[in-house]
Amino acid sequence: MGVVHHAAYFAWLEVGRTEYLRARGIPYAALEEAGIRMPVLRASAEYLLPARYDDEVEIEAELAGATPVRFAFDYSLRRVADGALLCRGRTEHVATDLSGRPRRVPKDLFALIGEGLENP
Known about the structure:
Helix content is 24%, strand content 32%. By secondary structure, the protein is an alpha+beta fold.
């Protein structure tokens, strides 16, 4: 086949999202320690060019919108060798407690997650 399976892109989106949070001082383990999970409600991908095996891929994630309970992330995946845009993606999440019930993210964490967003 020679190309990366379409489902692999969703794992890359997850990596981008967790690194986005880590860059703001929130490793995913810290969310769980605070009693918060962020399950995916919706995920989509627009495949523009195929990634091939052994391609190095750069993942850019940005917060597209946020409330204290819901979050949306947009992603761009590029091939490092030539900068070609391979895929655009989006995920939408709800904040829950550890039992799966919706909950608000504490203000201090919400401010860190939304850092740089005009109206988080």
